[in-house]
Amino acid sequence: MQKAPQTHPFPPLYNERSRVLILGSFPSVKSREQQFFYGHPQNRFWRVLSALFGGDVPQTVEEKKALVLHSRLALWDTIASCEIAGSSDASITNVVANDLRPILAGADIRAIFCNGGTSYKWYNKLLRGPLGREASLLPSTSPANAQWTFERLTNAWSAAILPYLE
Fold first, then answer.
1. Is residue 5 part of a domain?
2. pLDDT band, very low/low/confident/very high, at 18 (cuts 50, 70, 90)
3. In angstroms, rounded to a whole number, what is the distance separating the alpha carbons of residues 90 and 67?
4. DSSP reduced 3-state for 8
5. In the chain, at which end, N or C, are there fewer CB atoms within 10 A of the end residue's CB?
6. Do the Cβ atoms of 139 and 145 come closer than 8 Å?
């Protein structure tokens, strides 16, 4: 698959009650089509959040937004634009970082977590210094991260995130 320049097609999700910022790398093809985060049905992100906060796995964008905001989370991606082949994080080059300052100014963000190594790599390379904020690496919810079972993912995410929401 040929690499193509892409620009992030939708805004961050947060409000003044958000306490934990979760950063992905860059939206997959399915997410870009749906204009919302974690749109691929095999991505375990929405199942993990449902396990952490209870309730059914959200199906619609509106249900997903409600779960994130009710749980006092914020969602965004590290990368604003890049060249990428399809949805392959490994192919990402020519990265421009997203501006996280509006989220950090608009909410009392107590912790920043990166969903997977690509987000974490680009956060540390492009954003950690200018923001003066550390981020923590969480295991990716991507189906490509098959070595992490759903139970292991849920336990790791729960242990990392929930203390910041108490």
1. no
2. very high
3. 30
4. coil
5. C
6. yes
pTM of the model: 0.96
- Strand pairing class (93-97; 79-84): antiparallel
In the prediction, which pLDDT does 1 show?
Answer: 78
**CATH assignment of the domain containing 27:** 3.40.470.10
Tokens of residue 90, six digits: 């490994």
CA distance 21 to 40: 21
Which residue bears the tokens 């009650």? 17
74 residue type, one letter: A
Domain enclosing residue 31, as ranges: 12-77+97-165
Bridge pairing between strands 4-7 and 79-84 = antiparallel
Asked whether residue 83 is domain-assigned, the answer is no
Model confidence band, residue 90 (pLDDT cutoffs 50, 70, 90): confident
pLDDT for the residue numbered 166: 83
Q: Which helix (H) or strand (E) holds 102?
A: helix 101-106
Work out the average pLDDT over 63-77.
Answer: 98
